[in-house]
What we know:
Bound molecules: adenosine-5'-diphosphate, magnesium ion, zinc ion
CATH superfamily of the domain at 11-142: P-loop containing nucleotide triphosphate hydrolases
Radius of gyration: 17 Å
Strand content: 25-35%
CATH topology of the domain at 11-142: Rossmann fold
Strand order of the largest sheet: 5-2-6-7-1-8
Order of helices and strands: EHEEEEHEHEHEEEEEE
Shape: globular
Mean pLDDT: 92
Largest sheet: 6 strands, parallel
Number of strands: 13
Amino acid sequence: xxxxxxxxxxxxxxxxxxxxxxxxxxxxRRLRRAEIAGQRALIVMPAIDDRYDVGHVxxxxxxxxxxxxxxxxxxxxxxxxxxxxxxxxEVQFFDGAITNVIDELVAGGARVVAAxxxxxxxxxxxxxxxxxxxxAEFVDKLEAVCxxxxxxxxxxxxxxxxxxxPFGGETIQVGALDxxxxxxxxxxxxxxxxxxxxxIA
Length: 201
Ligand code: ADP
Ligand code: MG
Ligand code: ZN
């Protein structure tokens, strides 16, 4: 797709999809190009996501770029001050005020690239993603390869001891002993138990 970038001012790009769809890879690619073009570029990630190398965003394939961590969206605002291009990884983990912070950065002339999970492990819209998707100038929804059938995966399957995680479990469990797979809608197992209802919103 050929895109014309705005001549002036800031804008928001959202990169979303399930786990393993290449969001971090794409974020790194875009921010590295901005840096090569001589722009002041920064990647911020939530402090909650300490799975990898401290001080770097690392993709599942090993691509790496230095990054700073922020515990709150207010901290994102402070850290991003003075940068031309701001990448935010795992944006769905930030508090709801992240939408206003991003709006302010864009209004101040920054190019913001926000990458994050579109859906949680239940298949529901995740955190601030729905709002960010509506506000963005440019949106990319990436697919992974379904671990089951090899088709295009748009969902993230959480497994506990190899079985679908219960629908009623906590949404955020970074570093817990569960594992994740990318799955297509047909292969996705929602982990419904007797008391849970499959409602999207
Ligand atoms: P995300 O940030 O969306 O979780 P990453 O950018 O960290 O994704 O990782 C993408 C890389 O993960 C791919 O380039 C590929 O090498 C690897 N990978 C592992 N499992 C899968 C899968 N099921 N589908 C696609 N890529 C996968
Ligand atoms: Mg990632
Ligand atoms: Zn499948």
